[in-house]
Amino acid sequence: MKHTEKMQPGEGLPLSEVLDALPYNADGLIPAIAQQHDTGEVLMMAWMNRQSLDETLESGRVCYFSRSRRKLWRKGESSGQVQSLREMRFDCDGDTILLLVDQTGPACHTGRRTCFYSAVRGDRVEVVSAPMIDPDELYGK
């Protein structure tokens, strides 16, 4: 965010001004990375729009925008695996949001703690973590 590059700690801008100036894509979305606030573990990436940003900041419970369902997605509304916002940050370009969260249980729809459970190992991609819970159990199917 060019406006903040030369600022000193403690200096800032009005939140509404920053949210209005974010470089949302053609669908009105911006990427957000969720990271466990106390361990640094990267949990997931999802999309947010202005409405989901406002709701997240007002409620303290993370809300994304589901591209597949074309509606707001309150993390944990169907699984019970809620993300509570501890802090929201913006990267230097202002084109990605970092959400420091307190994650209840698994963050991934597969029942794993993180969505980043596939790792490159030489010439293969390997699964590196097991589900914490069966997805059918997680979603009551």
Account of the protein in words:
The protein is of the alpha+beta class and 141 residues long. The chain has a single domain, classed as Ubiquitin-like (UB roll), CATH 3.10.20. 15% of the residues lie in helices and 32% in strands. The protein is built from three helices and eight strands, in the order H-E-E-H-E-E-E-E-E-E-H. It has helices spanning 15-21, 50-59, 135-138, and strands at residues 30-36, 42-48, 63-66, 71-74, 83-90, 97-103, 118-121, 124-127. The strands form three sheets. Strands 2-1-6-5 form a four-stranded mixed β-sheet, covered by helices on one side. The chain has a two-stranded antiparallel sheet with strand order 3-4. Strands 7-8 form a two-stranded antiparallel ribbon. It starts with 14 loop residues before the first helix and ends with a helix. The relative contact order is 0.17.
Per CATH, which architecture?
Roll
Question: What are the low-pLDDT stretches, counting only 5+ consecutive residues below 50?
Answer: none
The CATH homologous superfamily name equals: Phosphoribosyl-AMP cyclohydrolase
Supply the number of structural domains: 1
Q: Report the CATH C-level class.
A: Alpha Beta
Specify the structural class: alpha+beta
Portion of residues in beta strands equals: 25-35%
Distance between the termini: 44 Å
CATH topology: the name is: Ubiquitin-like (UB roll)
Q: What is the percent of helical residues?
A: 10-25%
Largest sheet strand order = 2-1-6-5
- SSE order in H/E notation? HEEHEEEEEEH
- Principal-axis shape: globular
Task: Please give the largest β-sheet.
Answer: 4 strands, mixed
Subunit structure: Homodimer.
Binding site for Zn(2+): 92, 108, 115
Organism: Candidatus Sedimenticola endophacoides
Family: In the N-terminal section; belongs to the PRA-CH family.
